[in-house]
Amino acid sequence: MNQNSYLPPLDSDRDPKPSNQQQKATRLRRHLQNRSRRGSRTRDATSDPLPPATATATAMEVRPHTARSLVGRLRGAAAACDAAATAAAVAAIRLASKDDPAIRAPLAEAGAVPLLAAQLPAAAGVDAAAALLNISISAREQVASAPGLLDALTAALRTGAAHHAAATVHSLLCAEAHRAAIGARRPLLAALVALLRAPPSTRATKDALKALFAVALYPPNRATLVSLGAVQALFALVITDPRHGIVEDATAVVAQVAGCAESLEAFRWVSGVRILLDLVDPGGAETARARENAAAALLNLVVAGGDPAVAEVLAVGGAEETVRELAEDSAATPRGKAKAEALLRALEGAARRREHRLADFLNGLVQSDPYISSPASASTHG
Question: Where are the transmembrane segments (predicted)?
Answer without folding.
Answer: none
